[in-house]
Amino acid sequence: MPERYVYMDHNATTPIHPEVKKAMIEGMEYFGNASSFHYFGRLARKHIENAREIVAGFIGANPDEIIFVGSGSEANNTVLNIYACQCPCCGVSLKQPKEIITSNVEHPCILRTVECLRERGTTVRYADVDSSGKVDLTHLKNLVTENTGLVSIMMANNEIGTLMDIKEIAKSAHDKGVLVHTDAVQAVGKVSVNVNDLKVDFLTMSAHKFYGPKGVGALYVRKGAPFCPMIRGGHQEKGRRAGTENTLGIIGMAKAIEMLKTEMAPSSEKLKKLKQRLREGITQTIKDIYFNGHIDDSLPGTLNVSFDGVEGEAVLLYLDMEGIAVSTGSACASGSLDPSHVLLATGIGAEKAHGSIRFSLGKDNTMEDVEYVLKKFPPIIEKLRKMSTAYAKG
Ligand SMILES: Cc1ncc(COP(=O)(O)O)c(C=O)c1O
């Protein structure tokens, strides 16, 4: 049994906030189908519409610009599919150019979707990123033409925490009449996100990344932006996403957002200090290491580190034996031993990309957690380096 359990994998998912849990237990009473006209249906509807106002208000949107969905992946798929739409019913296909511009550091739910759309005839272009993982604005600007339908760039990278210059990206796309989507799944709850400040047309969020429940997210669609539903059926979400609403999940998501209003800012300040101590401690105790991501424009709790001569997976297993939970890349990509596409895009090379670990700290982590990691982590690297040197000597 480890001395202590330390969860530092909050970019994969977060624990449910106790207040969210309470709200959801109470929410179980509102079992009616929100589309039903009777009392039980109306009660569920009231809670959903209340939640919509809370979610919308938090990002500066109007409630009718928010569509509740089942996940961040679904929201991202929905937006991208609008631009490959072939259906005669929504009319989008007649008006919108088909080219999509994205980057190669996006989450797999963007990258796999655009790959699939490309197979079906959509032109996809990838903006370069620099060594910190930031999208190169000049390159992006040059890619945008009158044939571009959509620019989709994430707001914060899940693996290295780099924050993108979404405001400038949106401006340069809008200057050429092109609409902009940002996958803000990792940003919401960690940094301020406001659609009027960013001036994006579509924005994705997912509740389980900010202490809400899994299986619920929201897609912001600016009023008047072209739209085509990915899931057709009933008239839920004003015909934009069929399927009986996940009342309980939606209530949980809204409660998580309410908690962020007071807790996000102090938590970010604390996380910055914890991350700084973790970074300094690692630098002082381990040789030949490299930090990935932007040093300043970065999520407050994300620290990605590469080390020569060690496999990230081995480090992860040894840390797990000490009760420390981290990740070697995006959780969705784990199971594959391919080096992280994000790290490769930053140009660090396959070997270093293989020897990388992501610490993603959350609101309940403490300085004691960080000190515990700093006690356990360096000897693990040393041991694995010795093992790999011994193995190389045969
Ligand atoms: C940047 C980013 N986008 C999208 C997703 C997918 O969100 P969900 O798990 O809600 O499908 C994730 C999940 O890790 C993510 O990090």
TrEMBL record:
Residues 6-373 form the Aminotransferase class V domain. InterPro entries: Aminotrans_V_dom, Aminotrans_V_PyrdxlP_BS, Cysteine_dSase, PyrdxlP-dep_Trfase, PyrdxlP-dep_Trfase_major, PyrdxlP-dep_Trfase_small. Its cofactor is pyridoxal 5'-phosphate. GO terms for molecular function: cysteine desulfurase activity; iron-sulfur cluster binding; metal ion binding. It is an enzyme of class 2 (transferase). It catalyses: (sulfur carrier)-H + L-cysteine = (sulfur carrier)-SH + L-alanine. Gene3D superfamilies: 1.10.260.50, Aspartate Aminotransferase, domain 1 (3.90.1150.10), Type I PLP-dependent aspartate aminotransferase-like (Major domain) (3.40.640.10). Keywords: Iron, Iron-sulfur, Metal-binding, Pyridoxal phosphate, Transferase. The keyword Metal-binding applies. PROSITE patterns: AA_TRANSFER_CLASS_5 (PS00595). Its EC number is 2.8.1.7. The keyword Iron applies. Pfam families: Aminotran_5. Catalyzes the removal of elemental sulfur atoms from cysteine to produce alanine. Seems to participate in the biosynthesis of the nitrogenase metalloclusters by providing the inorganic sulfur required for the Fe-S core formation. Belongs to the class-V pyridoxal-phosphate-dependent aminotransferase family. NifS/IscS subfamily. PANTHER family: CYSTEINE DESULFURASE (PTHR11601:SF34), CYSTEINE DESULFURYLASE FAMILY MEMBER (PTHR11601). This is cysteine desulfurase. It comes from Candidatus Omnitrophus magneticus. The lineage of its organism: Bacteria, Pseudomonadati, Candidatus Omnitrophota, Candidatus Omnitrophus.
